[in-house]
């Protein structure tokens, strides 16, 4: 009997043996064309008559022909997007093991707070006298971030991690300029996030790569050998993208400062050290913090995000505007560089003050956890990652296994040698098991990398099921079950695409077929 007392479930036939349906649907797995294919030009969700005496106010800007948009009734539009949503995988669907991306549960309390009228209905151009509560929330958030990092200042405007990274590096460039230094080089370890060299190059720096040691970390002697009067900064991720804490980070920071350069720390992996390490004590000059990752706000799909950057005393004067200050007992925003409170500001990085909804969600998470809860969150995240790694090391191959992992477990593809199966095949087969795949082929310093970050959100039961799925896949690969992998995913709404063709010849827009154009 099964747990419902209804007897054992019937055996599942392979998809190829299942009968075809008239609609193309399989129960609640609904098949539907693109919205452009199912729409009709004559249908509209709103049908209003043209008012009498209407005058044209567009002049020569009026379109010569109607936009090529699908026509759908309201029920059709609603059903279309609900059906699409059922094809999505998100953190509310199950464990989201993306390595180096910290996809954790978003408590609904945070969502409720962000929807309070006093926050949700704000307009960025309101007079500051009418938004004192919102500004106070921003100040409280700033105080929390400074207490957690030990830094001197925080800039809230950046809209994402890479935007915060850009802000911090521009503050470094402004500081060098203010001191009359023309430095042109930024050092970036090979294990860094890809945005690090991109950010440095974007603002005009020459990027020089630093190799990692065999244990996956950066050697202080390698840094010293690369330092010169031309070096403006070192950009280092800690914990790094191999899931390891850079144990020589204090010595590295001292060497960088002795050479007259600044130390930028990529804070994307802050979830691993939250409440455990004050980055100021490590010698960091600037670090971005992803509120949408570490502090549990909605993440994925391109936003919204928030990437505040914390700054050391040496860089604090160069923080961008708008800057939050208190004047005559009231909070206000200094909007112009050079004004009192922003005399050396690097300029403006964002049209307004930042992502208010993300600020509310992050502060709600901080206050609901407290200092001890945030510390436990990072401890549990590290525990979960090490549990996953320890549970798979007898079947999968783990580089740098001599050192404990931080927030993520890293495996390479040497365990697949001789099987004819690749890391990508394993990731696709994991979709059939009901999971979003882990990060694959990153970091680049590990061949065929599989990077798993379970976060603190997952229970032991959840982790055990995920571990069991990976163990079963590993045993199937080693047993030569090629069909399970090479055709995967078998059960997704769409089968595996030709990724090489998709990358080289992407179809970025829908083109109306001649048959429809003729109609």
From TrEMBL:
Residues 173-300 form the Aminotransferase class V domain. One of its GO terms (molecular function) is glycine dehydrogenase (decarboxylating) activity. Residues 377-474 form the Glycine dehydrogenase C-terminal domain. InterPro entries: Aminotrans_V_dom, GDC-P_C, GDC_P, PyrdxlP-dep_Trfase, PyrdxlP-dep_Trfase_major, PyrdxlP-dep_Trfase_small. Keywords: Oxidoreductase, Pyridoxal phosphate. The keyword Iron does not apply. Its EC number is 1.4.4.2. It comes from the Bacteria. It catalyses: N(6)-[(R)-lipoyl]-L-lysyl-[glycine-cleavage complex H protein] + glycine + H(+) = N(6)-[(R)-S(8)-aminomethyldihydrolipoyl]-L-lysyl-[glycine-cleavage complex H protein] + CO2. It holds the Pfam family GcvP2_C. PANTHER family: GLYCINE DEHYDROGENASE (DECARBOXYLATING), MITOCHONDRIAL, GLYCINE DEHYDROGENASE, DECARBOXYLATING. The glycine cleavage system catalyzes the degradation of glycine. The P protein binds the alpha-amino group of glycine through its pyridoxal phosphate cofactor; CO(2) is released and the remaining methylamine moiety is then transferred to the lipoamide cofactor of the H protein. This is glycine dehydrogenase (aminomethyl-transferring). The lineage of its organism: Bacteria, Pseudomonadati, Pseudomonadota, Alphaproteobacteria, Hyphomicrobiales.
């Amino acid at each position: 009997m099964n747990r419902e007392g209804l007897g054992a479930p019937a055996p599942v036939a392979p998809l190829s043996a299942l009968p075809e349906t008239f609609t193309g649907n399989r129960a609640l797995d609904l098949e539907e064309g693109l919205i452009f294919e199912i729409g009709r030009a004559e249908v509209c969700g709103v049908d209003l008559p043209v008012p009498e005496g209407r005058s044209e106010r567009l002049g020569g800007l009026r379109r010569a022909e109607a936009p090529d948009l699908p026509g759908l009734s309201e029920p059709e539009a609603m059903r279309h997007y609900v059906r699409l949503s059922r094809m999505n995988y998100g953190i509310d669907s199950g464990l989201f093991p993306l390595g180096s991306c910290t996809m954790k549960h978003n408590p609904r309390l945070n969502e409720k707070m962000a929807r309070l009228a006093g926050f949700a209905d704000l307009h960025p151009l309101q007079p500051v006298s009418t938004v004192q509560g919102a500004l106070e929330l921003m100040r409280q958030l700033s105080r929390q971030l400074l207490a957690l990092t030990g830094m001197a200042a925080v800039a809230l405007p950046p809209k994402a991690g890479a935007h915060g990274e850009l802000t911090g590096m521009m503050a470094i460039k402004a500081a060098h300029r203010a001191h009359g230094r023309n430095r042109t080089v930024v050092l970036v370890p090979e294990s860094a996030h890809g945005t690090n060299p991109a950010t440095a190059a974007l603002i005009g720096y020459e990027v020089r790569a630093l190799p990692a040691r065999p244990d996956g970390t950066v050697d202080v002697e390698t840094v010293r050998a690369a330092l010169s009067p031309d070096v403006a900064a070192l950009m280092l991720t800690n914990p790094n993208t191999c899931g390891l804490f850079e144990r020589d980070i204090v010595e590295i920071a001292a060497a960088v400062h002795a050479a007259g350069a600044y130390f930028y720390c990529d804070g994307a992996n802050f979830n691993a050290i939250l409440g455990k390490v004050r980055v100021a004590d490590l010698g960091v000059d600037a670090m971005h913090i992803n509120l949408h990752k570490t502090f549990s706000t909605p993440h994925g799909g391109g936003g919204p995000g928030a990437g505040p950057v914390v700054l050391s005393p040496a860089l604090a004067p160069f923080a961008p505007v708008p800057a939050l200050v208190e004047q005559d007992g009231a909070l206000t925003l200094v909007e112009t560089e050079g004004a009192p409170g922003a005399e050396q500001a690097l300029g403006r990085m964002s049209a307004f003050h930042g992502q208010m909804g993300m600020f509310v969600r992050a502060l709600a998470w901080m206050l609901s956890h407290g200092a001890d809860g945030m510390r436990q969150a990072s401890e549990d995240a590290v525990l979960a990652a090490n549990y996953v790694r320890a549970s798979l090391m007898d079947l999968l191959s783990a580089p740098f296994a001599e050192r404990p992992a931080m927030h993520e477990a890293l495996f390479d593809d040497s365990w697949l040698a001789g099987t004819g199966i690749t890391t990508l095949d394993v990731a696709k087969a994991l979709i059939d098991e009901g999971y979003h795949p882990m990060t694959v082929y990153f970091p680049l310093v590990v061949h065929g990398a599989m990077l798993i970050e379970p976060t603190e959100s997952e229970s032991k039961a959840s982790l055990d099921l995920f571990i069991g799925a990976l163990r079963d896949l590993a045993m199937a690969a080693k047993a030569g079950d090629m069909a399970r992998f090479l055709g995967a995913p078998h059960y997704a709404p769409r089968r595996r695409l030709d990724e090489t063709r998709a990358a080289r010849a992407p179809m970025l827009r829908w083109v109306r077929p001649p048959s429809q154009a003729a109609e």
